[in-house]
Amino acid sequence: MIWRRTSFGAQSQAGSEFVARMLTVVTSLQAQQRDGLDFLTQTIQAERFGHEHPDLRPQPSAEDETPLAA
Q1: What is the pTM of this model?
Q2: Where are the domains positioned within the chain?
């Protein structure tokens, strides 16, 4: 909301959708304590060179993983 006020919003529906998606990505990455610029750089490079895109979903840490019971 604050961003829209200070930037005068987007001029088209496509622009509004782009902004909404970018703000969602940035907010998600901040919640995961991940670097947004690094993620976007990796995404653009993956698209340009035909590599697999990075995952926006939270990445499990080593302490989150539990060994399977035998």
Answers
A1: 0.68
A2: 2-49
Burial of 25 (0-12, 13-18, 19+ CB in 10 A): middle
Phi-psi domain of 58 (left: phi exceeds 0; alpha: psi -120 through 50; beta: other): beta
Q: Are 32 and 58 in contact (CB under 8 A)?
A: yes
**pLDDT tens sequence across 15-54:** 888 888 998 999 999 999 999 999 999 999 999 999 999 9
- Whole-angstrom Cα distance, residue 41 to residue 6? 25
Measured between its terminal Cα atoms, the distance across the chain in Å is 51
